[in-house]
Amino acid sequence: MTYDIQVQDHAAQPALVIRGKVRIEQAGEAIGGNIGAVGSYLERAGLQPAGAPFARTYQFADGVLEFESGFPLAVPAKSQGNLVATELPQARVAMTVHVGDQATSENAYNALHAWMEANGKQPAGAPWEVYVADDRMEIYFPVR
């Protein structure tokens, strides 16, 4: 698959997430479980997501993924228990779309890293994935 990389200015957006740290083999289940739990809370609280669910990766080392996953919101919410109020950052991002099995999304990240190297850009924060559909995700990578 060929990846079209676009540079965009992303506005800050409030979000509600659950954070986690798991072995990569358990990441899909953990991310999905967190998204489900946040979605259930939003429904009970009468709050509407302001977009598709996402996961942001803070670190991936030695087979362990440190992440947060949840939903963007139109207005900030308050942290409660394991639900953490946060925001997706205001940032210049390199963005691409991955279509297909999430197991092959590493190809999109490789394309983003190659694009950064070819264009003299450096990572400037934690990347995030927006799950638009079962077989389609948008990947946003802050750059400078």
Quick gist of this model?
By secondary structure, this protein is α+β, with helices and mostly antiparallel strands. The chain has helices at 27-45, 106-118; strands at 6-10, 13-23, 54-61, 64-72, 84-88, 91-99, 128-133, 136-142.
What do these coordinates show?
The protein is α+β, with helices and mostly antiparallel strands. It has one domain (6-142): Regulatory factor, effector binding domain (Multidrug-efflux Transporter 1 Regulator Bmrr, Chain A), CATH 3.20.80.10. The protein has two helices and eight strands; from the N terminus they run ββαββββαββ. It has helices at 27-45, 106-118, and strands spanning 6-10, 13-23, 54-61, 64-72, 84-88, 91-99, 128-133, 136-142. An eight-stranded antiparallel sheet has the order 1-6-8-7-3-4-2-5. Strand 7 (128-133) and strand 8 (136-142) form a beta hairpin. It is globular, with a radius of gyration of 15 Å. The two termini are 26 Å apart. The mean pLDDT is 96.
**Roughly what is the average pLDDT, rounded to an integer?**
96
> Please, what is the CATH homologous superfamily?
Regulatory factor, effector binding domain
**Helix content class:** 10-25%
Q: What is the strand content?
A: 35-45%
| Tally of alpha and pi helices | 2
The strand line-up of the biggest sheet is 1-6-8-7-3-4-2-5
Q: What is the β-strand count? A: 8
**Name of the level-1 CATH class:** Alpha Beta
